[in-house]
Amino acid sequence: MSSSDDRESILSRVRGALAPLHKRAAMPDYTTELAVMRQMMGSRDGLVVFSERLALVNAIALTDPVALVARLRENKWLHGYCDPALWPALAPHFGADFKVETTYDRKRVDDYAFGITRAVGAIAETGTIVLNDATTSRRLGALTPWVHIAVVERAKIFSDLPEAVAGLGQDTNVIWVTGPSKTADVEGILIEGVHGPGIQIALVV
Amino acid sequence: MRFQQIDQFAAELKADTRAAVYDGSKKGHEKRTKLLFDEYADPDRLRRIAGEVKQHVVENLDTYLPQVEAKLKANGVIVHWAATAEAANQAVLGIMRARGATKMVKAKTMVSEETELAHFLEKHGMEALETDLGEFIVQIDGDHPSHIVKPIIHKNRREIATSFEKNGLGAYNDDPQTITRRARHFLRHKYLEADVGLTGANFVSAESGRLVLVTNEGNSRFCLAATKCHIAMVGIEKIVPRDYDLALFLNLLARSGTAQELTVYTEFISGPKSPTQPDGPEEMHVIFVDNGRTEVLASDCRDILRCIRCGACLNVCPVYRQASGHAYRSVYPGPVGAVLSPLMMGDKFPQKADLPKASSLCGACHEVCPVNIPIPDLLLRLRNRAKEENVPSPGTPPMGAWALLASQPTAWRASLFGGKIINYLPTKLLPIPALRAWEAKRSLPAWRGGEFRKWLKTRKGRADFSPTAPSRAEAKKAD
Ligand code: SF4
């Protein structure tokens, strides 16, 4: 049977199964206010809540590139990838001990200790960084290094999930990243850095 | 004495496995409850509304399916339909062959477990590698997942370390961190070599055609960053009407499934990569899979199609905790599986008719379900169906003799007195096989038949049976 035969057979079975129903369940009328966490935002500043929530998912918020560079150096994360559009502004903060590439070579995935890419926004309520195709220079550059640094504009912090869903836009690939990649598959023990970054940093500018 | 299959399995379960499953599921459940109730004024209202939204979708699939298909096509996605597991697998194989592809990396998808896709592809000379850590371990072990969210809840670290060693992933080391790092290094090169990335979808928005994928490990993101072709296998019931509804479902799914506010990676995919993006699929396929779902839709248990596969009902179920997932002999274990699996069998329903009976009907599954599925009611409907279809039920005590006694006061009185004999009989001479089986693991309390009747007689004439309630006369005076 071909896919189009299968299409017809599935749809006719669906229609057949639903035919005996006298009344179909109606779509409930509700507002997504319902799904907003209580007492999270109030009148508080988006950045304050975002930083607080980010810490809860074990990610880090920084506002100063100097602090970022110090942290990378301290951990000997000296070789990385950076979005070419971001590099001119960041380069003056990095010393000669760093090796930063603005092209990403997928044959050398293990070379990059960190990757710096732009985020399209963030969600305060959950401590989430929003990435998409338009702002991410390389999907792999944001994913394969041990440390991912997302550069977020302060003005683009959504307060909650419903707001962020409303702002998904036209991009075909929107990714919400909430903390470092993790698993609890082995005996329920939490381990960070499974396939993606073990350290997630938001650099808010 | 013969047991039902599920009981037999539970009886023979290793103590280690039982402990692993019990602890894992209990932990998951306790965290979930705290999170939901701390953060929402009325979490039950969330569940009810989510349930209504999905019930609406299920009962209007005839409109939503063509709608979502049109949207996907407009987004540049190639849409396929598969009535059976075989058709779904063939569709995947066809796509791979057309591209000349031989290597696939797979994210976790329950539909591909249903169709046993990885086995099928391997048989046809393709490499199909599981990338979710738990699924990867199951794959190298030749095992099956035993939980829909935590596939290796039944394994401990020593077993995992042993199979890593056997499969050339380093010398024995049972530290979970080391295990995870080894998998990281092994798998990242596999993603980069693969041509095709396969995922499922947790939700598909009919309005925008967006597929929503949630993972914590980032493996599905890696599949979609490294490969050139994305195939998504999607059950026909995965639709939500609007993007607007996603916030509600995402909030519930992460909290119910893993007691997180949000999963680490939540991906919204509405087509192949953007032209300016160097990484990711240039080609995207969605395969809508029936594989028994229309059978379920035609039954009086269609509510189960609301399920968003969170696993909360497994975690809370006292039977699942004791029996473990493999006892259900299905891709879907636990309460959800006890409903879904027999129904998806179609004509072969009797083969799994024992599952709906493995429940104490305590109702905990209904209480935790983020889409408010009345699982105990559905279990009763299936028990009824088994009875109507005369499916044999080994191990169930015959109730005929009891019914006869209970309907004749004289016979009943005599049997109460005669029952005293049981106190003196050795277990293996007990007259009822079910009782013998029960006694093999526990000890019966001493027979005290007739006590209640004696007690009732001494209370004769008094309408009040509760020591604290006021008598009727007293209540009258107070009026
Ligand atoms: S039936 Fe409900 S609780 Fe169980 S897995 Fe499905 S959505 Fe979760």
Write the layout of secondary structure elements.
The complex is a heterodimer of chains A (205) and B (479).
Chain A: H1 3-18, H2 46-56, E1 60-62, H3 65-74, E2 79-82, H4 87-90, E3 99-101, E4 114-118, E5 121-123, E6 128-132, H5 139-143, E7 147-152, E8 157-158, H6 161-166, E9 173-177, E10 182-183, E11 191-192, E12 199-204
Parallel strand pairs in A: 1-12, 2-3, 2-4, 4-7, 5-8, 7-12
Antiparallel strand pairs in A: 5-6, 6-9, 10-11
Chain B: H1 5-12, H2 15-39, H3 43-58, H4 61-74, E1 78-82, H5 85-99, E2 103-106, H6 110-115, H7 117-123, E3 127-130, H8 133-141, H9 157-166, H10 176-193, E4 196-199, E5 203-205, E6 211-215, H11 219-226, E7 229-235, E8 239-240, H12 246-258, E9 265-269, E10 283-289, H13 293-298, H14 312-316, H15 318-323, H16 334-344, H17 364-368, H18 375-388, H19 400-406, H20 409-418, H21 433-441, H22 451-458, H23 472-478
Parallel strand pairs in B: 1-10, 2-3, 2-4, 4-7, 5-8, 7-10
Antiparallel strand pairs in B: 5-6, 6-9
Helix pairs in contact in B: 2-12, 16-18
Iron/sulfur cluster binds at residues 256, 307-313, 336, 368-371, 373 of chain B.
Question: How would you describe what is shown here?
Answer:
- The complex is a heterodimer of chains A (205) and B (479).
- Chain A is α/β, with parallel strands linked by helices and 205 residues long.
- Chain A has one domain (42-204): Rossmann fold (3-Layer(aba) Sandwich).
- Chain A is built from 6 helices and 12 strands.
- Chain A has helices at residues 3-18, 46-56, 65-74, 87-90, 139-143, 161-166, and strands at 60-62, 79-82, 99-101, 114-118, 121-123, 128-132, 147-152, 157-158, 173-177, 182-183, 191-192, 199-204.
- Chain A has a 6-stranded parallel sheet, with helices on both faces. In chain A, strands 8-5-6-9 form a 4-stranded mixed sheet. A two-stranded antiparallel sheet of chain A has the order 10-11.
- The mean pLDDT of chain A is 93.
- Chain B is of the alpha/beta class and 479 residues long.
- Among the domains of chain B are: 42-291, NagB/RpiA/CoA transferase-like (Rossmann fold, 3-Layer(aba) Sandwich); 411-478, no CATH class.
- Helix content of chain B is 49%, strand content 10%.
- Chain B is built from 23 helices and 10 strands.
- A 6-stranded parallel sheet of chain B has the order 1-10-7-4-2-3, sandwiched between helices. A 4-stranded mixed sheet of chain B has the order 8-5-6-9.
- In chain B, helix 2 (15-39) crosses helix 12 and helix 16 (334-344) packs parallel to helix 18.
- The model of chain B has no long low-confidence stretch (mean pLDDT 89).
- The chains are: A alpha/beta (205), B alpha/beta (479).
- At the A-B interface, helix 1, helix 5, helix 6, strand 9 and strand 10 of A face helix 2, helix 3, helix 4, strand 1 and helix 8 of B.
- Bound molecules: iron/sulfur cluster (SF4).
- The site of iron/sulfur cluster has 14 residues of chain B, from helix 14.
